[in-house]
Sequence to fold (117 residues):
Amino acid sequence: MIIDVDFLDHWRTQMICDALDDPLAPLYLIRLWAHCQASRTDTLKMPPAGLKAQCRYAGDAQKLEAALSESKFIERKGESIHVLGWKKKNAALFNAWENGAKGGRPKQNKGGAEISD
Fold:
């Protein structure tokens, strides 16, 4: 999982801290991202109460989801949440998972051009 060096000071991260009035808000995002990595997806089927539980947030579930939505970290689609930008930021992980499912990285031809008769 990739976390940018300015994550803690980024304006979107600060939006969540302000909306929740909670300096621990960045941990909620990291827990959500860790769940994405463990699940190998950026779309998770979970209700607001599930999001609250996954993030270990002690407050109101709707308030957490609203803060994450307003700061453009998540988007609700029916029964699922889509973690915005996570797949793009972690494209190398997704590529590794796809290659692993196919038996690993394809072998490179190291012998150069072959001569045929």
